[in-house]
Every structure is written in C-alpha cells, then in structure tokens.
Amino acid sequence: MFDKMFNLFFPSKCPVCEADSDNRATNPICSSCWVQIKKFNGPRCQICGLPVVSEFASLCAACIEERPHFEKIHYYASYTGVIKEAIHLMKFSGIRRLAKPLAKLLGDIQLSVCDVVIPVPLHRTKLIAREFNQTAALAKHISKNTGARLLTSALIKTKLTQPQTSLSGVDRRKNLKKAFAVCEDISGLKILLVDDVITTGATVAECARVLKKAGAAEVHVAALARSLPKH
User: Fold this and answer.
1) By C-alpha distance, which of 117, 127, 131 is closest to 194?
2) Whole-angstrom Cα distance, residue 193 to residue 204?
3) Is 9's pLDDT higher than 60?
4) 228, 51 contact by CB (below 8 A)
5) Tell me: the pLDDT tens digits for 156-205?
6) What SS3 state is found at 194?
7) At a CB cut-off of 8 Å and minimum separation 6, what does 182 contact?
8) Which residues contact residue 35 at a Cβ distance below 8 angstroms, ignoring those fewer than 6 apart?
9) Which of 36, 44, 154, 155 would be 82's cystine partner, CB 3.0–4.6 Å?
10) Does 37-226 carry CATH code 1.10.287?
11) Which residues in the chain belong to E strands, given as ranges?
C-alpha cells in the first residue's frame, strides 16, 4: 500500500517494460521484471566463474593451464533477459538510477572482503561521449554496501581501444595491451575490481595484471553478469 501511495506522488516507469515502478526497494525496476533476474547457481570454476561439468570440478581447463592475475570473479547472473536489458539501458541509454538496485544484487552473493573498490575505467573520449562510467556508478553503491573505500581514479585507461565485442579472445588481449595504468599507491591492498559484464574476462584480467604489477596484494572481481557459453 505504501509503495502504491509513493508511486502516486512520485510516479516512475520501469525502464525495462514501461509498467509502473511498484517497489521502492528495486525502483525503477518493477516487481515483475525484478523476479525474472535469476541468480546463477550452477557449478562453476572457482576462479573465472565459467560453468564446469560437475560440482566436484573446482577449476576450468583454461584456469588450470594459465592462472589468471585475479583471485576470483564473483557475478550474480547469466548475461541474458532482464538483467541484460537493464545493463544496456544503464550503459547506453544513460539511465543512471539503475545502478543502485542492480548493485544490490551483489549483496545477495558472498563477495570477497577487500580494502578498496576500484571500477574498470573508461577512456576519457568514451567517458565524455557517454557522460558517466556505469561501472563507477555500481562501484559507488558497492562501496557503501560493503564499507570498503572507493578509489575512482586509482586505475585509468590510457589507450582508446577497439570495441571488444568485435574481436576474438586473442585479439581482445592484444587490444588491451598497455591500455591501463595505475596512478595511486595501492601497495599491499586487497582490491575489489568492479565491472558490469564479464564476457571473455580479458578486460578484468589485464586490469588485474596492471594492479598486481603496481603492488596490489590481491584482486577480486565483482560483476552483475557473465556471458556463459551456449550449448
């Protein structure tokens, strides 16, 4: 009843389905869309998060062959359906108020306890064009929710790279070479690196490599969703 009265005086529409936003806790996403966001609970690699064939298999073949620079990727859902649409709306349509409810999803999974939260940065050119960094918006709320200190300028992107979606795994890594730099003292810190979506993991892997080289003790990754292989 209170939510209905609140929406009467402060009307809001769900950006995903255009229905009334009927729940202050998930506003602006409506209850109907919110319940469609399902946590991924299948067996996964304990480092990169990719699905594995059995709950008794702790690592995927790729992580066994070459250990990533990050300790672990935490993510809430598979990159599909409502969460995919919501991330697109936040990222490309500039709906910044989606960051708060989406960041709450990560409160439902056990994130690694870290000293600081650092968002994956955008290059200055892209930041000007987009007007805000969606991962920085998520990181702000994650910092508040976890109590870890937020560092928004410790990691910067120094090279304007090609869009990763158009590249193969090998080309993604080449594309990101020398693309990031650390410009604050992070020596000995345990870092929670925040991204919106993990696809191949090339971006967070390169960020983690640079952060470790600059003296970070550990780098853990938190993302809303992960692209999973199609079967």
Assistant:
1) 117
2) 8
3) no
4) yes
5) 999 988 766 666 666 777 778 889 999 999 999 999 999 999 998 999 99
6) strand
7) 154, 155, 156, 210, 211, 213, 214
8) none
9) 36
10) no
11) 72-78, 116-119, 149-150, 155-157, 180-182, 190-198, 218-226
Alpha-carbon gap, residue 171 to 183, rounded angstroms = 26
State the amino acid at position 205 in one-letter form: A
Q: Delimit the domains of the chain by residue range.
A: 37-226
**87: which 2 tokens?**
């991330």
Instruction: Kindly report the backbone phi and psi dihedral angles of residue 68, in degrees, each rounded to the nearest multiple of 5, phi listed first.
Output: -65, 165
Residue 177 burial class via C-beta count within 10 angstroms: exposed 0-12, middle 13-18, buried 19 and up: exposed
Find the helix packing angle between 202-213 and 169-176, rounded to 10°: 40
Within 10-107, residue ranges assigned H as helices are 31-34, 61-65, 81-92, 99-105
